[in-house]
Predict the structure of tRNA N6-adenosine threonylcarbamoyltransferase.
Amino acid sequence: MRVLGIETSCDETGIALYDSERGLLADALFSQIDLHRVYGGVVPELASRDHVKRLVPLMREVFASAGVAEGDVDGVVYTAGPGLVGALLVGGACARALAFAWGVPALGVHHMEGHLLAPMLEASPPAFPFVALLVSGGHTQLVRVDGIGQYQLLGESLDDAAGEAFDKTAKLMGLPYPGGPEIARLAASGTPGRFVFPRPMTDRPGLDFSFSGLKTATLNAWQQCVAQGDAGEQTRCDVALAFEQAVVDTLTIKCKRALKACGLNRLVIAGGVSANRHLRASLEAMAKGLKGELFYARPEFCTDNGAMIAYAGCQRLMAGQHDQSGIEARARWPMEELPPIN
């Protein structure tokens, strides 16, 4: 089965062609970072309008790159949520129109299921069951995965997601948007041990997260440095390192707990923050200590992309699922509501 995947949940327009026998044929992505940077964050209306502009050129690029005639697909899948409703509607409307014109089924895909399954696009994909850490700007969740659609939520953030905490902390320090990569860049030159921030909710049982207190602790430390006239580049680097280390340690501790609680030794990390090299190194060491395995997608498939949507949608289309009618767009959508497939 050959599937066209469309991703428009936020500020990236992603298009991909996936073939169930040949794998990923081609993909293309346009990021709106430059468009939103002046505002310090994503402006939903601007995001929606830019998706309208980018979809058709990207689709033509992908079909040409794959050497496939436009419309020579067996289905069209699109991100139906969670995400910005206006942006979702753009992708959904495009997908439904193409599916109608080409006479093929359409299907709305869960954005986080796409992230969760992105490592399946790699040469050595993980086998079920496993524990997944979904960590991005909008989500921080630990999920037990026994198969596609067989998800048990183990824990999640009670306030800010980890990626959101990165972006907000960067903004508080006067760093440009998007803040996560800026924090990581500065942390690479930081002095270990100069600042030490709390590892929130690791001193109590459970698998939930909270990053708002860590964000406040970082802000207080930074403001104190500013008041003392010590807000130079090296101090920025030192604060960034301490913040990054606190997030990485917290995620690592909770992942280790989750693996032990489930009796598993296979961990998958997905989402934008999973591209952080310090997080990967920490989880690699943790998994090795448990004689386990760590799986993740290549960096370009950690952030939002069309390939993950095409793959996830292809699995569900092959199981006989498709939209009955209309366009589905859901700002919030618990992943546990998804039906399992064999």
